[in-house]
Amino acid sequence: MKLHTRSKINIGLFVTSRRPDGYHNIETVFYPLNLGDELIIEKNNTDTAQLLLEGLPIEGNMEDNLLMKTYRIFKERYGIGGVDIRLQKQVPMGAGLGGGSADAAYMAKGLNELFELGLSHQVLEEMVAQLGADCAFFIQAQPAYAEGIGNLLHPLPLQLKGYYLLLVKPDVHISTAAAYKAITPQASGCRLGEVLLNCEVSEWDKHIRNDFEQPVFATHPIISDIKQKMYERGALYACMSGSGSSVFGIFASQPDTNGFEPHFVYTEAL
Fold first, then answer.
1. pLDDT at 72
2. Where in the sequence numbering do the catalytic residues fall?
3. CA–CA separation, 115 vs 231, rounded Å?
4. DSSP of the chain, one letter per residue?
5. pLDDT tens digits for 20-44?
6. % the chain with pLDDT above 70
7. Per the count of CB atoms within 10 A, which of 23, 44, 76, 213 is most buried?
8. What structural domains and CATH numbers belong to the chain?
9. Residue 187 banded pLDDT, cuts 50, 70, 90
C-alpha cells in the first residue's frame, strides 16, 4: 500500500494560556498542503514492524519514530501482524509543517485499511492525538480551526482556490519547547475563523498574528528576512508556520522563487 501524506501551514497562531499540565492552549487554523512524504506499508510474515527511512534526514532513534509508535498502538489494541514500512521523507523537519504528525496519521489510516479494521475517523483521531497535538488534523486533512493544544478541531469552510503559495524553509531548526518558553501567553482578541472567512487575504495581517514570530525573529533574523522578501515579491499575506522555521506567502499569481536558494523552496497552486 502506497500513501502520499500531506503537510500543513498555520494561518495565525495565538498562544492564549499555559495549562496546569505544562502545555499551552492555542488558537490557530490548519490549512492542508499537497507537500508530503511517500509512505509504503506492506504485511510481512513476522510479528513486528521493520522501518526503512529514505530521503531527507530524520533525527532520533528509529524506535522513537512516530511511525513505529503508531504501529505499536495498533499492535497492542488490535493484535495486528507485522509490517514493512518504507518512508521517503520529503517534508523537512523542524519546519512547522507537521510532517512527522502527518506520517503518523497516514500510518494509522494505512493500517486501518491494510488490516480491514473498519475504524472511524473519530476513533483514528483519538488514537493519534496521543502522539502529537496536530496528528489528529491529518486524519481528514481539511481546513480546521483548532483550539486546546491543537487537538480540538472544528471544520472551517476556508478555500484558497485561485491563489498560489510559496513556502521557504531556511537551514534553521527551531526548538518548539524553547519557542514556547519565550512567549508570554495572552488572549487573542480576534475571532480567527471569522477573520479568515470574511476578510480579503490582503487584510489578514491587520488582524491576525503568529505569536512565535517575535521571539523567533529575534534569534533567527534570516526567517524575518524571508518574510519581508515575500512581501517585496508581492505576497498578499506572509507568515511563519507554527513555531518555524518555514515561512509561507500567499500570492494572487505564480510567485517568483529566484533568490530564495539555497533554502528549501516549494510552490503550490491552491
1. 97
2. 8, 134
3. 48
4. -EEE--EEEEEEEEEEEE-TTS-EEEEEEEEEES---EEEEEE-SSSSEEEEEEES---S-GGGSHHHHHHHHHHHHH----EEEEEEE-SPTTSSS-HHHHHHHHHHHHHHHHTT----HHHHHHHHHTT-TTTTHHHH---EEEETTTTEEEE-----TT-EEEEEE-S----HHHHHHT-------S-HHHHHHHS-GGGGGGT--BTTHHHHHHH-HHHHHHHHHHHHTT-SEEEE-TTSS-EEEEESSPPP-TT-TTSEEEEEE-
5. 988 899 999 999 999 999 999 999 9
6. 100
7. 213
8. 2-155 (3.30.230.10), 164-269 (3.30.70.890)
9. confident
Task: Say which residues have a Cβ less than 8 Å from residue 145's Cβ, sequence separation at least 6.
Answer: 27, 28, 29, 153, 154, 156, 192, 193
Task: Look at residue 124 in the predicted model and tell me its pLDDT.
Answer: 97
The alpha carbon of residue 203 and the mean position of all alpha carbons in its chain are separated, in whole angstroms, by: 24
